[in-house]
Amino acid sequence: MAHLSIEGVSKLFGTTFAVRDFSLEVGDGELVCLLGPSGSGKSTLLRMIGGFEHPTGGTIRIDAKNVTTLPPERRPTGMVFQSHALWTHMDVFNNIAFGLKLRRLPKVEIRQRVEDALALVGLADYGRRMTTQLSGGQQQRVALARSLVLEPKILLLDEPFASLDQHLRERLREEVRDIQQRLGITTLFVTHGQDEALALADRIVVMRDGGTEQIAPPSTIYRQPQTAFVAGFIGSMNFVQSRTRNGVCEHPLFPLAVPVEDGPVTLAARPEALTIRSSGRVDAATVHRIVDFGTHKMVDIDLADGTRLKAMVAPDDRIRAGMRVEPSFAGFFVFRDNELVHQSMPAKGDVEIEELLRV
Q1: In terms of DSSP bridges, do strands 203-208 and 186-191 run parallel, antiparallel, or are they unpaired?
Q2: Maximum distance among all alpha carbons in the chain?
Q3: Rounded CA gap, 48 and 53, in Å?
Q4: How far apart (Å, rounded) are the C-alpha atoms in residues 136 and 162?
Q5: Structure pTM?
Q6: How far out from the chain centre does Cα 131 lie?
Q7: In this structure, are strands 238-245 and 263-269 parallel, antiparallel, or unpaired?
């Protein structure tokens, strides 16, 4: 196990910051997901930790040792790339053994460590197969074994499942989490998939434009987003633009008590915190579409101003398309200039994050 410390790290490409003044502490055996849209700087940051990019400024330490200027082969890190980066002219055994051979380890030790690594990733009998004979998921397991066989202190995973289908991604991420916990290895996992981050991470770092929006455990990120960007990026979120005056929201359908200064605000609520009832109001919303997921229904409703909201209702709810309905928030967030300024906790009980994200 190892402790990773990133202190004020920046990376400039020309005059553009890919990463700007980024700091993070990762504890022994912790799995941290770097989550963000394309171009947020997460892969660049991971490559700097692995030594494949050099920071423009800042310091990277592993177990208090400054590794900022060390090349990849001298760092106690192992990196798994999205592209697998396997040698097609070598069989599986030799792909995994390559790094050990460079270290000039005895043949007996190399064989034992490779066989152990193959067993760890569920490929015990695949050593003599060529990599071109493997499926995408099997190739990614080989790439993982190639990193783990070197016994790195820090495991770096750069969107390793991005090219795989959904069911395979879900199975592999469970396997990776099991392996990570079994080995107790400190891990950073880059992804732009919120479901992967919520399923895998001890903590999530939500990145945007090379900086940090929020760092917190998955449940906190979901239930207590500190910015409108985080609220919209994690899970499904409804946003309604309005104004407040004398502590009350002026939106005709959401006259909520909002104890903030007068001015423009963004109301936000999860689908499970949006309730709907039939209404004869002239300014009522209209049900646009209903999707039945078996355990619940997801209802799209259109407000008079064109805003579309999503509400989660029971599977036996008799709501139907075209109905006039009145929505209300059982719990909501209030943002101003991207910052959270007020939160009203929902009256409903907690709903499992994974279930919500399947919507």
Answers
A1: unpaired
A2: 81
A3: 5
A4: 11
A5: 0.87
A6: 29
A7: antiparallel
